[in-house]
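Per-residue structure
===
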Amino acid sequence: MDDRSNPVDDIQTLLSRLAIQLESAARSWEGELDNRSRLDFSGGGGATSLDLADRDDAFAVTVDVPGYESDDLEIRLHGATLSIRGERERERGHDSDQYIRRERSIQSFSRQLQLPEPVDADAVDASVNNGILTVELPKAAMDEGATAIDID
C-alpha cells in the first residue's frame, strides 16, 4: 500500500483554505469600508492626501499637491460632490540634455468628496500655496422660507 497522499486532495484542501481566507478578508474589507468615512468616493485613495474640516460656517478641503501649479488642477462642484483632478507632464528638456536617469514623468490624481451639507457654489474659493491646495466652501444658508408640516 502507498502511504503518500493524493496530490489532487492536497490541492483541494489548499483551495478550500484559500477560499476561506479570501472570504474572511472580503468581510474585513467590507467592515473597514462601513466604518470609514463615507465622504470619499475616490478610486484608490492613492498618493494624494486630503483633509476635510468643518469650520462652522464653511468646509475647508486641504489637498497635498506638491509640484502642481494652479493650471495643472481642475476643481468641480456638482451638487454635493467636490471633484479635484490634477495632471502634470514631464518637463521638456533641451535636445542636448543627456539624462543619466529620468524618473519624473506624467503624474495625475483624481479625488471625489461627498460634502456632508449643502454649500454656496457661487462663493467657493480655491488657492494653491507651497504645494497645498485649499478649497473654502461656505455652507449654504438655511432656507428661511421653510414650512412646517402638521401631522394628523
